[in-house]
Design goal:
Chain lengths: ~110, ~450
């Protein structure tokens, strides 16, 4: 089992979700985050006080999937979230040791 | 034979006829109430209270960091409560009784006597504040004293609430409460007496201040400057990001201030009449001009017109037109607005950063500077007919001599407010201290002082 963690631009969330549904992805977790990579922030001015704001709003998606779906999911996310501009984001693949569905007690693959 | 008319009989016949023919002097007949004026003043009082809660509360709270939003609103709310009681107990008496040229007497302590003219549920006469001085006209109104007292109370409430903008994010709550109670009695009430009571020295001298340029704005602005200098800069200022958390609140607050200010300025006519109409007119024009002035100045100087700038410009215009509102015509108000908008933009953005003091929400930059601009320009643009009375048919027209009088009023307010604020801060410092600890400041006042958070 693997956990796909993708940081994407917030307005791309719906497109990514729509690209994942036909692959059989049953659920995902979304978190609003802030961060920066190569994309620069902006300067905000409040009554003459200037602040350099580096942290840009992003969205983090986490999906737990079976090993054999990893390539398809990564490609779907990267195609849907791409804008060809700096700041599009990154995808990480993490190993998942164990999993359990809380309602039924099913474990591992049956829980995904 | 000619009948000799007995002189006493003749007088006895003639006297009633003579008395009926003679017009009733103010000293003899009780001053009449006017329900239209009273209705307007009741409404104005509510409008001015709205300026503090929630107008100023929102305006200030919107500009601080998230962790201090509640504490900032609490300052306005609590000051409203404290000053209400202090005004009732002694503030009103010190400000608006005859007394001396420097302060009133104690005849209205605890509002004693304010119900003296009530018969069958209603006042039988309007409020008159005697000058106590020969040849100086009394202040006559057409409204009950309770309404006048309440209207003035709302001014006494907002003035200290303005000061809180200077020490945002770092003053102890207990210290603030004590300081504001003392300040209201010792700084606000006397200055109000000087300028607005007919026995007051500034009023007798002819200093013009229709709705509180000196009494409210210069007073609070200078006190704010002293506070921010005594308390010192916020921890991490100026390098830490202290951006406003919710400017939407600030816009809502500024808008409530704008509308409420019609009660502040037009209500200072103490009547529902043409003077109030002109005061409302010039208030609107100056405010709009100032908002645009700040906005365009910022657009040119910084590249973008900001929402905070437009709202702040409007407040600067409101402040500047305050002393002038009953004395100037639309043309003058347009100039006052533009000068205040651009001038306060400069003082709140450039001057503050140049001199390095942390007047967090620009109590001095907007209220102090705006008040000074307005008070001085009142001496330039005053239109005699607006201030003319039977006793003074030419009124107080603008010109060099009036300008000099305005300078005297401004200077004495600055000196008294500055010195006494410093003294009171030192007194409060000994009793409670002044500033929160650095840890409390970093944690945020909402949690540290009040044990609550809003987001």
């Amino acid at each position: 089992m693997k956990l796909i963690m993708a940081i994407i631009k917030p307005f791309k969330l719906d497109e990514v979700r729509d690209a994942l549904t036909p692959l059989g992805v049953q659920g995902l977790t979304v978190t609003e985050v802030k961060g920066f990579g190569r994309q620069k922030g902006q300067t905000e001015i409040y009554r003459g006080a200037e602040y350099q704001v580096s942290y840009l709003p992003k969205v983090k998606i986490e999906i737990a999937i079976a090993d054999d779906m990893v390539d398809a999911v990564m490609e779907a996310i990267s195609k849907a979230a791409n804008t060809d501009k700096i700041g599009d984001g990154k995808i990480f693949v993490l190993d998942v040791e164990r999993a359990m569905r809380i309602r039924t007690g099913e474990t591992d693959i049956a829980a995904l | 034979m000619m009948k000799r008319s007995h002189p006493t009989w003749g007088l006895a016949v003639l006297l009633p006829a003579l008395l009926l023919a003679v017009p009733a002097f103010a000293d003899d007949a009780p001053p009449k109430l006017d329900s239209g004026d009273t209705a307007w003043m009741l409404a104005s009082t509510a409008l001015v209270l709205l300026m503090t809660i929630p107008g100023l509360a929102l305006f200030y709270a919107g500009m601080v960091r998230k962790k201090n939003i509640l504490a900032t609103m609490m300052q306005s709310f609590t000051i409203c409560c404290i000053v209400t009681i202090v005004w009732m107990v002694a503030g009103y008496s010190i400000a608006f009784t005859t007394g001396t040229a420097y302060m009133g007497d104690f005849s209205r302590i605890m509002l004693h006597g304010i119900a003296d003219h009530i018969v069958k549920g209603n006042d039988t006469q309007a409020f008159v504040l005697a000058s106590g001085i020969k040849d100086v006209a009394d202040m006559a109104t057409t409204i009950p004293e309770t309404v006048y007292m309440m209207f003035q109370m709302t001014f006494a409430i907002i003035t200290p609430a303005l000061i809180a903008g200077a020490f945002a994010d770092r003053m102890k709550f207990s210290s603030m409460c004590l300081f504001m109670a003392l300040w209201s009695l010792i700084v606000y009430a006397p200055i109000a007496h000087w300028v607005w009571a007919p026995s007051g020295w500034a009023s007798q001298l002819g200093v013009l201040d229709f709705a509180g340029g000196t009494v409210v704005h210069i007073n609070a602005g200078v006190a704010g400057l002293v506070c921010c200098l005594v308390l010192g800069k916020r921890t991490g200022y100026p390098d830490t990001n202290m951006a406003p958390y919710n400017l939407a609140y600030a816009v809502i607050g500024a808008s409530l201030l704008w509308v409420g200010w019609f009660g502040f300025n037009a209500g200072s006519a103490v009547a529902a009449n043409g003077r109030a109409g002109m005061a409302m007119t010039v208030t609107q024009i100056a405010t709009a001009a100032a908002a645009l002035g700040w906005m365009f100045a910022e657009w040119i100087a910084k590249g973008k017109p900001s929402v905070l700038g437009a709202a702040s410009g409007a407040v600067a215009g409101l402040v500047a037109i305050t002393p002038a509102s009953g004395f100037v015509l639309p043309g003058g108000s347009l100039v006052i607005g533009v000068v205040a908008g651009v001038g306060c933009f400069w003082s709140a953005t450039s001057l503050k950063h140049m001199l390095g003091y942390d007047d967090s929400l620009d109590a001095f930059g907007v209220h102090g500077v705006g008040g000074i601009i307005g008070a001085l320009l009142t001496g330039v643009f005053s239109y005699g007919a607006l201030s003319a009375t039977d006793a003074s048919p030419d009124g107080s027209p603008g010109g060099m001599s009036q300008f000099i009088l305005q300078c005297e009023g401004v200077a004495s307010t600055i000196v008294y407010s500055g010195v006494m604020t410093f003294v009171l801060l030192m007194v409060v410092k000994v009793i409670f201290g002044l500033r929160v600890s650095e840890d409390e400041e970093r944690e945020g006042l909402d949690i540290a002082l009040h044990g609550e958070q809003v987001f």
